[in-house]
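Obj: model holo form, ligand = manganese (II) ion.
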Amino acid sequence: VESFEVRTVPLGGVRGIEVHRALPQRALPTVGAWCFLDEFGPTRHPMNVLPHPHIGLQTVTWTFDGEVRHRDSLGSDVVIRPGQLNLMTSGRGVAHSEFSRTGNLHGLQMWVALPSAEARSKPAFAQHTELPVYEEDGLRARVFLGTLGEVTSPATTFSPLVGAELGLSGATAVPLRPDFEYAVLLIDGDVEANGIALRPGRLYYAAPGHGELTLASSPHTARLILLGGLPFPDDLVMWWNFVGRDHDEVAAARADWEAADIVRFGPVTGHGAERIPAPVLPNVRLAPRRRPGRG
Ligand code: MN
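Output (holo C-alpha coordinates):
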Protein backbone atom coordinates (compact mmCIF):
# COMPACT_ATOMS: atom_id res chain seq x y z
CA VAL A 1 0.00 0.00 0.00
CA GLU A 2 1.32 3.42 -1.02
CA SER A 3 -0.03 6.77 0.10
CA PHE A 4 -0.14 10.11 -1.68
CA GLU A 5 -0.55 13.67 -0.46
CA VAL A 6 -3.90 15.35 -1.11
CA ARG A 7 -3.20 18.90 -2.41
CA THR A 8 -5.27 22.03 -1.77
CA VAL A 9 -6.02 23.90 -5.01
CA PRO A 10 -8.33 26.79 -6.00
CA LEU A 11 -11.37 25.87 -8.10
CA GLY A 12 -13.48 27.75 -10.62
CA GLY A 13 -11.85 31.18 -10.77
CA VAL A 14 -12.18 34.13 -8.41
CA ARG A 15 -15.61 33.14 -7.10
CA GLY A 16 -14.62 29.54 -6.56
CA ILE A 17 -13.62 27.63 -3.45
CA GLU A 18 -10.58 25.64 -2.42
CA VAL A 19 -10.74 21.92 -2.99
CA HIS A 20 -8.62 18.99 -1.82
CA ARG A 21 -7.30 17.10 -4.85
CA ALA A 22 -6.51 13.43 -4.31
CA LEU A 23 -6.34 12.43 -8.01
CA PRO A 24 -4.60 12.69 -10.37
CA GLN A 25 -1.18 12.32 -8.76
CA ARG A 26 2.03 12.70 -10.75
CA ALA A 27 2.90 9.07 -10.03
CA LEU A 28 -0.72 7.86 -10.04
CA PRO A 29 -2.73 9.28 -12.96
CA THR A 30 -5.60 6.79 -12.63
CA VAL A 31 -7.07 4.17 -10.30
CA GLY A 32 -9.06 1.91 -12.60
CA ALA A 33 -10.82 4.41 -14.88
CA TRP A 34 -11.02 6.95 -12.01
CA CYS A 35 -8.87 9.89 -13.10
CA PHE A 36 -9.94 12.74 -10.83
CA LEU A 37 -10.98 13.02 -7.19
CA ASP A 38 -11.64 16.35 -5.44
CA GLU A 39 -13.11 16.77 -1.98
CA PHE A 40 -14.84 20.12 -1.45
CA GLY A 41 -15.63 21.30 2.08
CA PRO A 42 -16.74 20.93 4.75
CA THR A 43 -17.34 24.65 4.30
CA ARG A 44 -20.05 27.29 4.46
CA HIS A 45 -18.50 29.08 1.48
CA PRO A 46 -20.69 28.64 -1.60
CA MET A 47 -19.46 26.80 -4.69
CA ASN A 48 -20.38 28.78 -7.82
CA VAL A 49 -18.88 27.13 -10.87
CA LEU A 50 -19.99 28.81 -14.10
CA PRO A 51 -20.54 26.85 -17.35
CA HIS A 52 -17.46 24.94 -18.47
CA PRO A 53 -16.91 22.07 -20.91
CA HIS A 54 -15.89 18.42 -20.59
CA ILE A 55 -14.83 15.72 -23.05
CA GLY A 56 -13.79 12.08 -22.69
CA LEU A 57 -15.11 11.46 -19.18
CA GLN A 58 -18.02 10.99 -16.81
CA THR A 59 -18.44 13.49 -13.96
CA VAL A 60 -19.51 11.78 -10.74
CA THR A 61 -20.90 14.10 -8.05
CA TRP A 62 -21.48 12.74 -4.54
CA THR A 63 -22.29 14.92 -1.54
CA PHE A 64 -22.18 14.43 2.23
CA ASP A 65 -23.82 17.72 3.21
CA GLY A 66 -25.60 20.57 1.44
CA GLU A 67 -27.34 20.98 -1.90
CA VAL A 68 -25.83 21.67 -5.33
CA ARG A 69 -27.81 22.75 -8.40
CA HIS A 70 -26.56 21.20 -11.66
CA ARG A 71 -27.49 22.66 -15.06
CA ASP A 72 -26.10 21.39 -18.36
CA SER A 73 -26.22 21.85 -22.11
CA LEU A 74 -28.56 18.84 -22.41
CA GLY A 75 -31.25 20.85 -20.56
CA SER A 76 -30.84 19.12 -17.20
CA ASP A 77 -31.59 21.28 -14.14
CA VAL A 78 -31.49 19.29 -10.90
CA VAL A 79 -30.51 19.69 -7.25
CA ILE A 80 -28.35 16.95 -5.75
CA ARG A 81 -28.69 16.01 -2.09
CA PRO A 82 -26.62 13.68 0.14
CA GLY A 83 -26.96 10.02 -0.80
CA GLN A 84 -27.81 10.86 -4.42
CA LEU A 85 -25.61 10.52 -7.50
CA ASN A 86 -25.25 12.92 -10.41
CA LEU A 87 -23.60 11.20 -13.36
CA MET A 88 -22.85 13.19 -16.50
CA THR A 89 -21.33 11.36 -19.46
CA SER A 90 -19.57 13.92 -21.60
CA GLY A 91 -18.91 11.82 -24.68
CA ARG A 92 -17.60 14.14 -27.38
CA GLY A 93 -18.69 17.28 -25.52
CA VAL A 94 -21.00 18.73 -22.88
CA ALA A 95 -21.07 21.85 -20.70
CA HIS A 96 -22.44 22.33 -17.20
CA SER A 97 -22.57 24.63 -14.18
CA GLU A 98 -22.70 23.81 -10.46
CA PHE A 99 -23.98 26.21 -7.84
CA SER A 100 -24.39 25.27 -4.19
CA ARG A 101 -27.31 26.43 -2.08
CA THR A 102 -26.73 28.46 1.10
CA GLY A 103 -25.47 26.51 4.10
CA ASN A 104 -23.03 23.72 4.77
CA LEU A 105 -21.32 22.09 1.81
CA HIS A 106 -19.25 18.91 1.72
CA GLY A 107 -18.82 16.46 -1.13
CA LEU A 108 -16.79 14.89 -3.88
CA GLN A 109 -16.30 15.65 -7.55
CA MET A 110 -14.89 12.67 -9.40
CA TRP A 111 -14.18 11.85 -13.04
CA VAL A 112 -14.16 8.47 -14.77
CA ALA A 113 -12.22 8.28 -18.05
CA LEU A 114 -14.22 6.87 -20.96
CA PRO A 115 -12.74 4.05 -23.05
CA SER A 116 -11.74 5.15 -26.59
CA ALA A 117 -14.89 3.67 -28.13
CA GLU A 118 -17.12 5.81 -25.88
CA ALA A 119 -15.04 8.99 -25.81
CA ARG A 120 -16.74 10.38 -28.94
CA SER A 121 -20.26 9.18 -28.11
CA LYS A 122 -23.39 11.24 -27.34
CA PRO A 123 -23.47 13.10 -24.02
CA ALA A 124 -25.95 12.05 -21.32
CA PHE A 125 -26.99 13.01 -17.81
CA ALA A 126 -28.66 10.95 -15.07
CA GLN A 127 -29.52 11.56 -11.45
CA HIS A 128 -29.90 8.48 -9.25
CA THR A 129 -31.77 9.00 -5.98
CA GLU A 130 -31.97 5.31 -4.98
CA LEU A 131 -28.65 3.52 -4.66
CA PRO A 132 -28.04 0.03 -3.28
CA VAL A 133 -26.27 -0.73 -0.01
CA TYR A 134 -23.74 -3.48 0.66
CA GLU A 135 -24.05 -4.52 4.31
CA GLU A 136 -21.84 -6.59 6.58
CA ASP A 137 -21.19 -6.55 10.31
CA GLY A 138 -19.72 -3.12 11.02
CA LEU A 139 -20.18 -1.86 7.45
CA ARG A 140 -22.82 -0.03 5.43
CA ALA A 141 -21.50 0.77 1.96
CA ARG A 142 -23.54 2.86 -0.46
CA VAL A 143 -22.50 1.71 -3.93
CA PHE A 144 -22.88 4.73 -6.22
CA LEU A 145 -21.03 3.35 -9.24
CA GLY A 146 -20.08 -0.13 -10.36
CA THR A 147 -20.08 -3.23 -8.15
CA LEU A 148 -19.03 -4.09 -4.59
CA GLY A 149 -19.41 -7.76 -3.68
CA GLU A 150 -22.73 -8.73 -5.29
CA VAL A 151 -24.19 -5.21 -5.07
CA THR A 152 -24.32 -3.15 -8.26
CA SER A 153 -25.29 0.49 -8.78
CA PRO A 154 -27.88 1.13 -11.52
CA ALA A 155 -25.72 3.97 -12.93
CA THR A 156 -24.20 3.55 -16.40
CA THR A 157 -20.52 2.59 -16.53
CA PHE A 158 -18.20 1.78 -19.43
CA SER A 159 -15.45 -0.19 -17.66
CA PRO A 160 -15.36 -2.55 -14.66
CA LEU A 161 -15.06 -0.38 -11.54
CA VAL A 162 -16.48 0.49 -8.13
CA GLY A 163 -17.20 3.71 -6.24
CA ALA A 164 -18.71 3.43 -2.76
CA GLU A 165 -19.14 5.41 0.44
CA LEU A 166 -18.23 3.15 3.37
CA GLY A 167 -19.86 3.82 6.74
CA LEU A 168 -17.94 1.94 9.44
CA SER A 169 -18.94 1.03 12.97
CA GLY A 170 -16.32 -1.38 14.29
CA ALA A 171 -14.33 -3.98 12.41
CA THR A 172 -15.18 -5.42 9.03
CA ALA A 173 -13.76 -6.86 5.82
CA VAL A 174 -14.61 -5.37 2.44
CA PRO A 175 -14.50 -7.80 -0.49
CA LEU A 176 -12.03 -6.76 -3.20
CA ARG A 177 -11.50 -8.09 -6.71
CA PRO A 178 -7.90 -9.27 -7.11
CA ASP A 179 -7.84 -7.92 -10.69
CA PHE A 180 -8.83 -4.40 -9.52
CA GLU A 181 -6.60 -1.68 -8.13
CA TYR A 182 -8.08 0.45 -5.34
CA ALA A 183 -7.81 3.77 -3.56
CA VAL A 184 -9.20 4.78 -0.18
CA LEU A 185 -9.82 8.30 1.10
CA LEU A 186 -10.72 8.91 4.75
CA ILE A 187 -13.58 11.39 5.05
CA ASP A 188 -14.09 11.40 8.83
CA GLY A 189 -13.33 9.30 11.89
CA ASP A 190 -10.38 7.15 12.95
CA VAL A 191 -9.74 4.08 10.84
CA GLU A 192 -7.16 1.32 10.58
CA ALA A 193 -6.97 -0.31 7.15
CA ASN A 194 -5.08 -3.61 6.98
CA GLY A 195 -3.51 -2.55 10.30
CA ILE A 196 -2.38 0.91 9.06
CA ALA A 197 -3.81 4.00 10.78
CA LEU A 198 -5.24 6.15 7.97
CA ARG A 199 -4.32 9.83 8.06
CA PRO A 200 -6.56 12.60 6.80
CA GLY A 201 -5.16 14.36 3.73
CA ARG A 202 -3.69 11.16 2.26
CA LEU A 203 -4.94 8.94 -0.55
CA TYR A 204 -4.11 5.26 0.01
CA TYR A 205 -3.50 3.07 -3.04
CA ALA A 206 -3.43 -0.72 -3.37
CA ALA A 207 -2.24 -2.40 -6.58
CA PRO A 208 -4.13 -5.45 -7.89
CA GLY A 209 -3.76 -8.69 -5.93
CA HIS A 210 -5.89 -8.16 -2.81
CA GLY A 211 -8.98 -10.24 -1.97
CA GLU A 212 -10.21 -8.09 0.88
CA LEU A 213 -9.64 -4.89 2.81
CA THR A 214 -9.88 -5.14 6.57
CA LEU A 215 -11.11 -1.99 8.27
CA ALA A 216 -11.63 -1.01 11.89
CA SER A 217 -13.01 2.23 13.23
CA SER A 218 -12.63 3.24 16.85
CA PRO A 219 -14.05 4.48 19.05
CA HIS A 220 -16.79 5.97 16.91
CA THR A 221 -18.20 5.56 13.43
CA ALA A 222 -16.15 6.59 10.42
CA ARG A 223 -16.61 7.29 6.76
CA LEU A 224 -14.39 6.43 3.79
CA ILE A 225 -14.53 6.54 0.04
CA LEU A 226 -13.46 3.44 -1.87
CA LEU A 227 -12.64 3.71 -5.58
CA GLY A 228 -11.37 0.87 -7.71
CA GLY A 229 -11.32 -0.70 -11.11
CA LEU A 230 -9.42 -2.66 -13.72
CA PRO A 231 -6.19 -0.76 -14.46
CA PHE A 232 -7.05 1.63 -17.32
CA PRO A 233 -5.30 0.46 -20.50
CA ASP A 234 -4.89 3.81 -22.31
CA ASP A 235 -2.47 6.69 -21.75
CA LEU A 236 -4.51 9.84 -21.12
CA VAL A 237 -3.77 13.49 -21.76
CA MET A 238 -5.57 15.40 -19.02
CA TRP A 239 -5.67 19.17 -19.30
CA TRP A 240 -8.16 21.57 -17.67
CA ASN A 241 -11.58 19.89 -17.99
CA PHE A 242 -10.64 17.61 -20.84
CA VAL A 243 -9.58 13.97 -20.99
CA GLY A 244 -8.12 13.02 -24.36
CA ARG A 245 -5.76 10.59 -26.02
CA ASP A 246 -3.34 13.19 -27.42
CA HIS A 247 -2.49 16.89 -27.57
CA ASP A 248 -4.44 17.59 -30.75
CA GLU A 249 -7.70 16.19 -29.36
CA VAL A 250 -7.44 18.42 -26.28
CA ALA A 251 -6.37 21.47 -28.29
CA ALA A 252 -9.36 21.01 -30.64
CA ALA A 253 -11.76 20.82 -27.67
CA ARG A 254 -10.25 23.98 -26.22
CA ALA A 255 -10.62 25.80 -29.57
CA ASP A 256 -14.26 24.68 -29.88
CA TRP A 257 -15.06 25.95 -26.36
CA GLU A 258 -13.34 29.27 -27.02
CA ALA A 259 -15.26 29.59 -30.32
CA ALA A 260 -18.50 28.96 -28.34
CA ASP A 261 -19.24 26.03 -30.71
CA ILE A 262 -22.84 25.28 -29.72
CA VAL A 263 -22.97 22.15 -31.86
CA ARG A 264 -20.27 20.57 -29.73
CA PHE A 265 -20.87 22.08 -26.29
CA GLY A 266 -24.21 23.88 -26.39
CA PRO A 267 -25.36 26.66 -24.09
CA VAL A 268 -26.19 26.13 -20.42
CA THR A 269 -29.46 27.97 -19.82
CA GLY A 270 -29.61 30.53 -17.02
CA HIS A 271 -26.13 32.08 -17.16
CA GLY A 272 -26.45 34.56 -20.03
CA ALA A 273 -23.01 35.03 -21.60
CA GLU A 274 -21.19 34.04 -18.39
CA ARG A 275 -18.88 31.04 -18.74
CA ILE A 276 -15.40 29.98 -17.67
CA PRO A 277 -12.84 30.76 -20.37
CA ALA A 278 -10.27 28.07 -21.14
CA PRO A 279 -6.75 28.76 -19.88
CA VAL A 280 -3.98 29.30 -22.43
CA LEU A 281 -2.43 26.04 -23.62
CA PRO A 282 1.17 25.57 -22.51
CA ASN A 283 3.84 26.24 -25.10
CA VAL A 284 4.70 22.54 -25.37
CA ARG A 285 2.79 19.56 -26.67
CA LEU A 286 0.73 18.00 -23.89
CA ALA A 287 1.97 14.53 -23.04
CA PRO A 288 0.18 11.68 -21.34
CA ARG A 289 0.89 11.03 -17.69
CA ARG A 290 2.32 7.59 -17.13
CA ARG A 291 2.87 5.93 -13.84
CA PRO A 292 6.47 4.97 -13.07
CA GLY A 293 7.39 1.52 -14.32
CA ARG A 294 4.53 1.37 -16.80
CA GLY A 295 6.15 1.94 -20.18
MN1 MN B 1 -17.34 20.09 -14.35
